[in-house]
User: Which sequence fits this backbone?
C-alpha cells in the first residue's frame, strides 16, 4: 500500500533518475548473465567435443604433450581388466584448401579402434573405407567427415593437400565418415589417419600421444585406473576423458577470472549508483518521511518502504539484464570459443548459448540482493529520521558531514591494518584479508577526502568563474553525501584504469626485458608459424644439416612440452644449458646465475621460472619431482630466473637429461645465431632454400618473434580495456544521475539567480562547474587510489595466479589522458541537466519547495 | 586289392569306429588328416560387398608346422598398391596367437593386439581370429546331429570355447563330411547369434590331403561375401624357420 501511495508517485516524478538506477542494475546483471551463459556454453560444447572424440573410451593414458613409446601400449593391453586399448595421435594441420583453415587429425589404429569410436553412425555397418587394406598400406590415406567432404567437394579418391613434417604433401581420401558421432566434432573439421602413418607424417618417431581404453566387462573403472597408474608410474596420467575438460577449464582460468572480475566490478559500481539514487531519494523525501513518522509509521515500515523500492528496481533491472545478457552471451561465447581454437588450433566449435534456470535464478538473486544491499544504508538512514528534525531544513546535512568523518576514521584504521597485514604475511588468506581491508578502507576514506578536496578546489575554480563556481561548489559541499557517492563510483573506475594500465606497463617492460635476453637469437627455426604449437618435431639429425648452412655461427636445440605436475600443466624446457648460459644470460631471481647453469648442465639440478617457484612455494635446495616415463626425476632447485613463457610456470633441465629420461631426441625449435656481419635475412633464405622442399619449416627473424610476443601481450590486455570501458560508462551514468538530482535540488536557487538578473549562460556554467568539480575531485582521488591499487594488484599477481612479478611503473601517460577525458565526459554528462535547468519556467522554479 | 589300399581302408574303418560317437575324436581326426609339415599356396580373394561391389586381391600363403604351434605368413601380391603388405601369425597351443602386420610403405611392422582379433581382416569377411588355428583342447564338443552336405552325409558338431579361452565367438557349429573327415561348413556364433558362415568346396586330394580349393565366407549381418580360391597348393615343402619372424617381414620378398 505504502509503495503504491508513496513510492509510485515519486518514481513517476523522477522517471529519469529511476531509469538511470535501473540501467546500473541492468548492466551489472547483463554482464553477469552473459559471462555465465557463455562460459557454460563453451564448456558444454568443449565437453561434447571431447566426448565425441573419446567415443566409448572410459580411460585415457597420456604423458603430457610429450607422448610415450609404443611399449606402453603393450603393457596396457596386457592387463586382463582392459577390454580394448587403442593408440592415438592427435595433431592439428593446415589443409591448404582455400579458406578451410586447420584440420584436427586423429591418428588411430584402424584394426581395433572401432571398438571405441563411432565412425559411421549414419551408415551403420556399411564399409567405413573403400578398401581397408589399401587404407593401411598407403600412408597418404585419410578419412574425412561427410560435412568436410561436401564443403570441399571431395569424394573417394580426391586429393587433399596437408602440411607434413616433410613439407606440404597430397593425401588421398579413402574413406568418408557419416554424419553424427565422431564426425561432428569440431564442426566436421576432422580427419582420421592410420596412427602409424601419423607417426611418420608428424615426425613423432615411435611414440603415441595417448591410449584410449575401455575396461573389461565387470571391471570397475576406478580400480583399473588405479592399477594402470601404479603399473605405469607417475610419469603418466590415467584419467577419464572428462578430465581433459578440467584441464581446459584450467587453461581458461585467466579468461574466467577476468570475466568474474568484470562482472563483480560492474555490479559494485552499479551498487554505488543505486546507493547514490536512494541516498538522494531519502534526502529529498525527508519531509515526507517526517510526516509519515509523525502520522505513526514505524521505523521498520519506513525501512521496508525504501528497501522494497530497491528490490523492485533490482527485480525489473535483473529481468532486463537477463534479456540483454543473453543477447550478449553469443558474442562472448564466440570470443571464448576462439580461445579453444587457440588451444586446439582447430575452429568449428558451434557454441549455442542457452539460458539455464540456474543462471536465471542466480542473476535474479544477484540483481535483487545487490540492489537491496545498496539501498539498505539509505533505508536505515530514512528509518532513523526524527520527525521534528526532518522539518528543520539543513540539519540533516550537518549530521551527514559528521557521519562522513566517523566513517573516514574507521576507513583509515581498516586501510592501515590491511596494509600492515599485506606487508607482514606470506600466506594467502591473511593477504586477501589485508587486500580487502585496504580496498574497503580506501572507499570509506574517500567521502571525507572528496569533501576536503571540494572545499580546497572551491577558491581555485571561483577565480575562473566567481559566481557560477561559488554556486556549484557550495552545492557540492552542501550535498556532500551525494557528491561523495558519485565521486566514489568515478574514482573507482579511474583507479581501475590506472591499476590495469600500470600492470600492463609493468608487463610490457618486464616482457620486453625478458625478450631482450631470452629471445635474442637472430633466427628461430620452428615447425609452425607460432612458437607454441607443438604438433611436429624436427629430428635431431637436422642439427648438423642446419649447422652446415653458410653464415650460421651456432645452433641451439630446444625441446619443450607441457607436462602435468599435480593438477596443473607446466612447461618443461630442455635446453643445451652451457650454450644457453653463454648465449642468452638470464636475470636471476634467486641463486647465482653461473652456478645454476653449471649444475644444471651437469644434470644435477633444475632451474625454475619465477612464477613456478612462487606458485608452488619452492625455494633453492628444494627437490623438484618431475614425472617422467621412467618414474620420478627428482632434482634439486638450483636457481630461479625471470621467465614469462608460461602462465603456470616453467622448469629448465639439460637436454641430455631429457633425452635420457624421455627417450626422445626430437627438437621443437632451433635457436640460430648468425656470424657477425652476415645478414640474418640472407641466412633465413638459405635455410628455407635448403629445407623447405623436403621439410615443414618456418624461419622467424628476431623481430618477428618480438612482434608475436607483443601481439600476445596485447591480446591479453584487450579484455581488460573492454572491462574498463564498461566501468567508465557505468560511472558516467552516476554523474548524469547526480547532476540531474542536483539541478532538481537547486531549481529554486537557480530560479533566484535568473530572477536577480543572472543569464542563461551563468546557469549553464553553474551546472557545468558542478560537473567539472565532481570530475576533478574524482580524477585526483582516482589517480591516488589507482597508485595504491596498482601496488596491491602487482603484489597479487606475484603472490597468486599467475605468480609473475612485474616492476611498479605508474602509467603517467594514461593518467594524463584520463584527466581531459573525464572532464570532457563530465561536461558532456552535464549538458542535458544544464539545459533542463535553463529551460525550467522561472515562476515554477521560484515556487519549488 | 593291393596292400596300400587295404591299409587305408583299415585305417578309415578303425577311425570311423572310434569316432562314430565321440565328437572330440571326430575333430581330432579332421586335424590329423590335414596335418602336414608345411603348406604353401597362392590365394585369390574376391570380396563382394552388400551393394554388389567387387574387389579382388592376391596373396601368397606359407605355413610352417601344423595344428597347435604353426607359424604362417600371408603376403599380398596384388593389386600393386597393397603389394608387400604382410601378416605374420605365430600360433600357440595354450593361448592366443601373436600377430604382426607389415606395411612396406611405412617400412614398419605393427602388432595386432589380441583384443582386435574380432575385427575384419583387411576388409574381407574373415576376422583376424579366423586366421588362428583352433587347438583341440581349448574347446568342448557336442555331437548335435547328422545331416546331408551337398548330398554327402555329415556330422554336425558344436564346439564351445572352454573357460579362459578368449574368443569373439561363443560357439561354432561344424559340419564334417563323413567320407573324408573334412569340413563342409563352419558357422560361427556370438551372443547375438550367427556371425559368419564358411563353406568349404572343390575338395581335391593334394599329396594325400583332402583340400578345399574354395572357401566361401559369408558375413551374415553385413550381407557381404568373400571367396578365397587356393591355387598351386603344395604340402611338406621345405621352408626355413627364420622366414617366419618379424625380421623376415622387414626383409620382404
Assistant:
Amino acid at each position: 500500500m505504502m509503495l503504491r501511495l508513496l513510492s509510485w508517485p515519486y518514481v513517476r516524478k523522477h522517471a529519469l533518475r529511476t531509469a538511470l538506477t535501473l540501467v546500473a542494475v541492468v548492466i551489472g546483471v547483463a554482464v553477469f548473465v552473459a559471462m555465465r551463459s557463455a562460459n557454460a556454453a563453451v564448456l558444454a560444447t568443449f565437453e561434447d567435443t571431447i566426448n565425441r572424440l573419446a567415443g566409448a573410451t572410459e580411460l585415457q593414458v597420456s604423458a603430457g604433450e610429450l607422448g610415450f613409446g609404443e611399449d606402453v601400449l603393450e603393457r596396457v593391453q596386457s592387463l586382463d581388466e582392459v577390454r580394448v586399448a587403442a593408440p592415438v595421435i592427435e595433431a592439428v594441420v593446415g589443409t591448404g584448401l582455400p579458406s578451410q583453415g586447420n584440420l584436427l587429425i586423429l591418428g588411430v589404429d584402424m584394426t581395433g579402434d572401432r571398438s571405441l569410436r563411432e565412425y559411421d553412425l549414419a551408415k551403420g555397418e556399411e564399409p567405413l573405407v573403400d578398401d581397408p587394406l589399401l587404407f593401411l598400406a598407403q600412408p597418404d590415406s585419410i578419412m574425412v567427415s561427410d560435412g568436410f567432404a561436401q564443403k570441399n567437394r571431395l569424394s573417394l579418391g580426391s586429393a587433399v593437400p596437408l602440411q607434413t613434417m616433410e613439407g606440404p604433401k597430397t593425401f588421398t581420401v579413402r574413406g568418408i565418415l557419416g554424419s553424427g558421432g565422431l564426425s561432428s566434432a569440431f564442426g566436421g573439421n576432422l580427419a582420421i589417419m592410420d596412427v602409424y602413418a601419423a607417426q611418420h607424417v608428424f615426425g613423432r618417431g615411435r611414440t603415441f600421444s595417448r591410449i584410449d581404453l575401455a575396461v573389461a566387462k565387470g571391471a570397475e573403472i576406478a580400480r583399473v585406473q588405479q592399477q594402470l597408474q601404479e603399473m605405469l608410474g607417475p610419469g603418466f596420467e590415467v584419467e577419464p576423458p572428462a578430465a581433459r575438460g578440467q584441464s581446459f577449464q584450467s587453461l581458461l582460468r585467466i579468461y574466467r577470472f577476468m570475466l568474474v572480475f568484470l562482472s563483480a566490478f560492474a555490479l559494485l559500481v552499479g551498487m554505488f549508483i543505486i546507493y547514490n539514487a536512494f541516498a538522494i531519494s531519502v534526502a529529498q523525501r525527508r519531509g515526507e518521511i517526517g510526516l509519515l513518522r509523525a502520522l505513526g509509521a514505524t521505523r521498520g515500515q519506513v525501512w521496508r518502504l525504501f528497501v522494497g523500492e530497491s528490490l523492485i528496481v533490482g527485480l525489473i533491472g535483473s529481468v532486463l539484464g537477463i534479456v540483454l545478457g543473453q543477447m550478449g552471451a553469443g558474442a562472448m561465447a564466440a570470443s571464448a570459443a576462439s580461445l579453444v581454437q587457440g588451444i586446439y588450433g582447430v575452429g568449428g566449435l558451434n557454441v549455442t548459448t542457452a539460458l539455464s534456470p540456474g543462471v536465471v535464478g542466480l542473476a535474479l538473486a544477484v540483481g535483487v540482493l545487490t540492489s537491496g544491499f545498496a539501498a539498505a544504508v539509505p533505508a536505515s538512514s530514512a528509518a532513523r529520521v526524527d520527525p521534528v528534525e526532518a522539518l528543520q531544513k539543513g540539519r540533516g546535512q550537518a549530521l551527514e558531514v559528521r557521519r562522513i568523518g566517523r566513517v573516514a576514521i574507521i576507513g583509515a584504521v581498516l586501510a592501515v591494518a590491511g596494509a600492515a597485514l599485506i606487508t607482514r604475511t606470506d600466506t594467502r588468506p591473511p593477504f586477501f584479508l589485508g587486500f580487502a581491508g585496504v580496498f574497503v578502507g580506501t572507499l570509506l576514506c574517500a567521502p571525507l577526502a572528496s569533501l576536503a578536496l571540494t572545499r580546497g578546489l572551491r577558491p581555485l575554480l571561483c577565480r575562473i568563474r566567481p559566481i557560477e563556481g561559488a554556486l556549484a561548489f557550495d552545492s557540492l559541499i552542501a550535498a556532500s553525501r551525494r557528491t561523495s557517492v558519485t565521486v566514489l563510483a568515478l574514482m573507482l573506475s579511474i583507479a581501475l584504469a590506472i591499476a590495469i594500465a600500470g600492470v600492463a606497463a609493468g608487463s610490457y617492460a618486464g616482457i620486453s626485458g625478458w625478450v631482450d635476453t631470452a629471445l635474442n637469437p637472430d633466427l628461430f627455426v620452428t615447425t609452425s608459424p607460432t612458437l607454441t604449437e607443438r604438433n611436429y618435431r624436427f629430428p635431431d639429425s637436422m642439427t648438423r644439416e642446419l649447422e652446415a648452412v653458410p653464415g650460421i655461427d651456432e645452433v641451439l636445440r630446444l625441446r619443450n612440452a607441457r607436462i602435468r605436475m599435480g593438477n596443473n600443466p607446466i612447461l618443461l624446457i630442455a635446453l643445451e644449458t652451457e650454450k644457453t648460459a653463454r648465449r642468452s644470460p638470464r636475470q636471476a631471481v634467486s641463486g647465482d646465475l653461473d652456478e645454476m647453469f653449471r649444475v644444471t648442465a651437469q644434470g644435477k639440478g633444475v632451474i625454475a621460472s619465477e612464477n613456478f617457484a612462487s606458485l608452488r612455494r619452492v625455494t633453492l635446495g628444494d627437490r623438484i619431482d618431475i614425472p617422467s616415463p621412467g618414474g620420478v626425476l627428482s632434482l634439486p632447485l638450483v636457481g630461479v630466473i625471470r621467465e614469462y613463457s608460461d602462465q603456470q610456470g616453467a622448469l629448465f633441465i639439460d637436454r641430455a637429461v631429457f633425452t635420457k629420461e624421455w627417450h626422445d631426441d626430437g627438437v621443437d625449435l632451433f635457436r640460430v645465431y648468425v656470424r657477425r656481419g652476415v645478414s640474418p635475412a640472407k641466412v633465413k633464405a638459405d635455410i628455407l632454400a635448403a629445407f623447405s622442399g623436403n621439410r615443414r619449416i618456418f624461419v622467424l627473424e628476431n623481430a618477428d618473434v618480438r612482434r608475436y610476443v607483443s601481439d600476445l601481450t596485447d591480446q591479453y590486455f584487450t579484455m581488460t580495456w573492454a572491462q574498463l570501458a564498461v566501468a567508465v560508462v557505468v560511472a558516467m551514468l552516476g554523474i548524469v544521475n547526480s547532476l540531474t538530482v542536483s539541478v532538481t535540488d537547486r531549481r529554486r536557487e537557480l530560479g533566484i539567480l535568473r530572477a536577480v538578473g543572472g543569464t542563461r549562460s551563468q546557469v549553464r556554467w553553474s551546472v557545468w562547474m558542478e560537473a567539472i568539480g565532481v570530475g576533478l575531485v574524482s580524477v585526483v582521488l582516482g589517480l591516488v587510489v589507482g597508485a595504491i591499487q596498482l601496488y596491491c594488484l602487482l603484489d597479487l599477481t606475484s603472490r597468486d595466479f599467475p605468480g609473475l612479478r612485474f616492476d611498479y611503473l605508474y602509467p603517467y601517460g594514461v593518467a594524463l589522458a584520463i584527466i581531459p577525458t573525464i572532464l570532457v565526459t563530465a561536461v558532456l554528462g552535464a549538458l542535458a541537466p544544464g539545459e533542463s535547468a535553463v529551460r525550467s519556467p522561472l515562476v515554477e522554479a521560484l515556487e519549488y519547495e | 586289392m593291393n596292400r596300400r589300399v587295404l591299409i587305408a581302408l583299415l585305417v578309415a574303418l578303425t577311425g570311423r569306429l572310434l569316432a562314430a560317437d565321440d565328437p572330440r575324436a571326430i575333430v581330432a581326426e579332421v586335424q590329423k588328416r590335414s596335418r602336414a609339415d608345411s603348406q604353401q599356396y597362392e590365394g585369390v580373394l574376391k570380396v563382394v560387398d552388400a551393394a554388389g561391389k567387387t574387389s579382388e586381391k592376391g596373396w601368397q600363403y606359407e605355413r610352417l608346422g601344423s595344428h597347435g604351434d604353426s607359424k604362417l605368413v600371408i603376403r599380398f601380391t596384388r593389386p600393386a598398391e597393397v603389394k608387400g603388405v604382410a601378416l605374420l601369425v605365430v600360433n600357440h597351443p595354450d593361448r592366443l596367437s601373436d600377430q604382426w602386420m607389415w606395411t612396406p610403405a611405412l617400412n614398419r611392422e605393427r602388432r595386432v593386439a589380441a583384443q582386435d582379433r574380432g575385427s575384419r581382416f583387411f576388409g574381407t569377411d574373415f576376422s583376424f581370429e579366423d586366421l588362428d588355428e583352433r587347438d583341440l583342447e581349448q574347446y568342448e564338443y557336442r555331437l548335435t546331429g547328422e545331416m546331408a552336405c551337398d548330398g554327402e552325409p555329415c556330422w554336425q558338431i558344436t564346439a564351445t570355447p572352454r573357460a579362459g579361452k578368449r574368443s569373439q565367438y561363443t560357439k561354432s557349429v561344424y559340419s564334417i563330411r563323413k567320407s573324408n573327415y573334412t569340413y563342409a561348413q563352419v558357422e560361427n556364433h556370438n551372443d547375438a547369434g550367427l556371425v559368419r558362415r564358411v563353406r568349404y568346396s572343390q575338395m581335391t586330394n593334394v599329396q594325400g590331403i583332402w583340400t578345399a580349393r574354395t572357401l566361401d565366407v559369408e558375413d551374415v549381418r553385413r550381407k557381404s561375401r568373400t571367396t578365397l580360391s587356393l591355387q598351386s597348393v603344395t604340402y611338406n615343402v621345405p621352408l626355413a624357420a627364420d622366414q617366419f619372424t618379424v625380421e623376415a617381414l622387414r626383409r620382404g620378398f
Residues 299-344 of chain A form the longest helix (46 residues). The CA atoms of residues 49 and 461 of chain A lie 63 Å apart. Residues 121-127 of chain A have pLDDT under 50 and may be disordered. The longest strand of chain A covers residues 552-565.
